[in-house]
């Protein structure tokens, strides 16, 4: 039987050390804490940086956990499990709001719709499960960009001066999108006002797991004349969405907030 690989054990020890601290650690601190030579420690750190498991602060030179480790830790809940946990709440939201409901997760720089409940009327509708939505032009996407720590890092289009436009109302400016996401974080929900499809409005809120990490989003969508009134977006519909998001989050072990 093959023996243990020392370099992997040392890398794991470094990651555990970083995970246990609330701040970055210097090369000397890591080397001293694990009783490893600085040269050996530096070599492991550079390798972990290369694969995205460790990041180095350019200003201080200190090391901290990177997005690669975060991905491993937060993606234990896949779309199928999220859908299973959210089925009843999604149905309830559709009945309460009178609109169609979608649940989405982050997938390759887009929002993957993992569950879709039709609007509870007799109109002809198309099932949207498996549809990919743009992050910056959808309520589900804005929610993920605001609350999922991986979404912004994965949105390569976000680095461009101008983002793709879908209607005249699409936010295409990076500066404007940054301001929009700050507002989403402050409010706890996101809106999409004819930014992806003309005449359509959507509202979404984050679904969190037991660690408080956003693992998806739930939202409703419908015609602008139904979801808006003379004062703008109907806040009762916003409340319905947030209630559903909180309920699903509790199903996943999140603490009430």
UniProtKB/TrEMBL annotation:
Keywords: DNA-binding, Glycerol metabolism, Transcription, Transcription regulation. It comes from the Bacteria. GO terms for biological process: glycerol metabolic process; negative regulation of DNA-templated transcription. Residues 68-254 form the IclR-ED domain. GO terms for molecular function: DNA binding; DNA-binding transcription factor activity. Residues 5-67 form the HTH iclR-type domain. The keyword DNA-binding applies. The keyword Cytoplasm does not apply. InterPro entries: GAF-like_dom_sf, HTH_MetabolicPath_Reg, Tscrpt_reg_IclR_C, Tscrpt_reg_IclR_N, WH-like_DNA-bd_sf, WH_DNA-bd_sf. SUPFAM superfamilies: GAF domain-like, Winged helix' DNA-binding domain. May be an activator protein for the gylABX operon. This is Glycerol operon regulatory protein. The lineage of its organism: Bacteria, Bacillati, Actinomycetota, Actinomycetes, Streptosporangiales.
């Amino acid at each position: 039987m093959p023996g243990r690989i020392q370099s992997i054990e040392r890398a794991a020890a470094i990651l555990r050390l970083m995970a246990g601290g609330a701040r970055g650690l210097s090369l000397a601190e890591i080397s001293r804490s694990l009783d490893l030579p600085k040269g050996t420690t530096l070599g492991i750190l550079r390798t972990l940086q290369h694969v995205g498991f460790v990041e180095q602060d350019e200003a201080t030179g200190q090391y901290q956990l990177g997005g690669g480790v975060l991905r491993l830790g937060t993606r234990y809940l896949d779309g199928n499990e999220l859908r299973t946990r959210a089925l009843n709440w999604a149905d309830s939201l559709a009945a309460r709001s009178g609109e169609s409901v979608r649940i989405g997760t982050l997938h390759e720089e887009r929002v993957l719709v993992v569950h879709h409940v039709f609007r509870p009327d007799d109109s002809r509708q198309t099932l949207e499960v498996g549809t990919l939505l743009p992050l910056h032009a959808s309520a589900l996407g804005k929610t993920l960009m605001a609350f999922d720590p991986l979404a912004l890092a994965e949105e390569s289009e976000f680095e461009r001066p101008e983002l793709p436009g879908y209607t005249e109302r699409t936010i295409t400016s990076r500066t404007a999108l940054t301001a929009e996401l700050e507002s989403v974080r402050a409010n706890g929900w996101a809106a999409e006002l004819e930014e992806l499809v003309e005449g359509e409005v959507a509202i979404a809120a984050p679904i969190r797991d037991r660690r408080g990490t956003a693992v998806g989003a739930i939202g409703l969508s419908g015609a602008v004349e139904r979801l808006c009134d003379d004062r703008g977006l109907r806040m009762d519909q916003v409340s319905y969405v947030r209630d559903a998001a909180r309920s699903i989050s509790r199903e996943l072990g999140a603490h009430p907030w």
